[in-house]
């Protein structure tokens, strides 16, 4: 707990409490902007005094932080999940051909191949609908670098512009699907041995979810 000015490490300290927009509260506008009722004002769900209410409660939280005081939890927002209307049809089941497992490679990187900056490397896997698991804390696509013998470390994932994850169904009404990973090798990439990794989740006939991982053959970047 800070007890004197000497305890402050910096002259100016700002405490910012920020959250994701478009969740429970949506937009928060000023009283004046609310009266105009443009897009932001019309999306301020709790009336013209929403901002004042936020400021009031944030002041209480700030004082509690400064004074090292406990804050009693307030009322919980209502759970409206069951009242949401979804127009996207649900995933019924994911399928694969006979003799194939989810994650098996259906179009591998050529064996003993090598590539250089600017070239495209691709691999495809028997996969499942990505809506079964959104991989919020993970990734659908990963490119790994061989650092030492059997020591693969992440190099790029589907957050990177150079690595793309493409999901498709060969036929519109088919339960089978494929995941294609494409890597446009960027300039300045570390030379060495790489491979693709794919992560997915398949839905069974009775609704169970099965997670799987897949790997392509290794290839060399020169």
Characterize the structure shown:
By secondary structure, this protein is an alpha+beta fold. It folds into two domains: 79 residues, no CATH class; 117 residues, Immunoglobulin-like. It is 12% helix and 29% strand. The protein has three helices and ten strands; from the N terminus they run αααββββββββββ. Strands 2, 4, 5, 8, 9 and 10 form a six-stranded mixed β-sheet that branches. It has a four-stranded antiparallel β-sheet with strand order 1-3-7-6, with no helix packed on it. It is extended, with a radius of gyration of 25 Å.
Q: How large is the count of helical segments?
A: 3
- Structural class call reads alpha+beta
Per DSSP E runs of 2 or more residues, the count of β-strands stands at 10
**Biggest beta-sheet profile:** 6 strands, mixed
How many structurally independent domains? 2
Overall 3D shape: extended
The N- to C-terminal Cα distance equals 55 Å
Strand content: 25-35%
CATH class of the largest domain: Mainly Beta
CATH architecture of the largest domain: Sandwich
CATH fold category name of the largest domain = Immunoglobulin-like
Low-confidence stretches: 1-5
Give the overall average pLDDT: 90
- Could you tell me the radius of gyration in angstroms? 25 Å
Q: List the helices and strands in order.
A: HHHEEEEEEEEEE
Helicity, as a percent range = 10-25%
CATH superfamily of the largest domain: Neutral/alkaline non-lysosomal ceramidase, C-terminal domain
Main location: endoplasmic reticulum
Keywords: Endoplasmic reticulum, Glycoprotein, Golgi apparatus, Hydrolase, Lipid metabolism, Metal-binding, Secreted, Signal, Sphingolipid metabolism, Zinc
Binding site for Zn(2+): 27
Domain Neutral/alkaline non-lysosomal ceramidase N-terminal: 11-56
């Amino acid at each position: 707990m800070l007890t004197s000015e000497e305890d402050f490490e910096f002259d100016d300290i700002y405490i910012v409490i920020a959250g994701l927009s478009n969740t429970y509260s949506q937009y928060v506008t000023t009283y004046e902007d609310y009266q105009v009722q443009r897009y932001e004002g019309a999306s301020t769900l709790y009336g013209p005094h929403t901002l004042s209410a936020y400021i009031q409660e944030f002041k209480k939280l700030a004082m509690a932080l400064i004074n090292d005081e406990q804050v009693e939890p307030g009322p919980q927002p209502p759970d409206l999940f069951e009242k949401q209307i979804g127009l996207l049809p649900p995933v019924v089941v994911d399928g694969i051909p006979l003799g194939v497992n989810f994650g098996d490679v259906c179009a591998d990187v050529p064996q003993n191949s090598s590539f250089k900056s600017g070239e495209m490397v691709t691999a495809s896997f028997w996969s499942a609908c990505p809506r079964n698991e959104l991989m919020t804390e993970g990734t659908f696509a990963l490119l790994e670098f061989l650092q030492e013998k059997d020591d693969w470390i992440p190099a790029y994932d589907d957050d990177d512009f150079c690595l793309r994850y493409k999901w498709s169904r060969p036929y519109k009404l088919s339960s089978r699907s494929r995941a294609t990973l494409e890597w446009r090798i960027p300039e300045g990439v570390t030379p060495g041995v790489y491979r693709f990794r794919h992560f997915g989740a398949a839905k069974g006939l009775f609704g169970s979810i099965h997670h799987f991982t897949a790997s392509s053959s290794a290839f060399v970047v020169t």
